[in-house]
Amino acid sequence: xxxxxxxxxxxxxxxxxxxxxxxxxxxxxxxxxxxxxxxxxxxxxxxxxxxxxxxxxxxxxxxxxxxxxxxxxx
Length: 74
Hints:
Blueprint: E1 13-16, E2 22-25, E3 30-35, E4 42-48, E5 52-55, H1 67-73
Antiparallel strand pairs: 1-2, 3-4, 4-5
């Protein structure tokens, strides 16, 4: 399943973590989330267009280069 959020041209979608960290979606950025059916496991990655794929929780480079690589691991 996929969702597309559209904003006015040039506006970013702001995201704030509970610990104060912040980042913003921009044109072409994506969030990939993997969850187990029983909700005991979940992971998420931020795909920043032109920059790479970050781990959502740590905000560090994930080592993944493509969304397909993430999905093939889970």
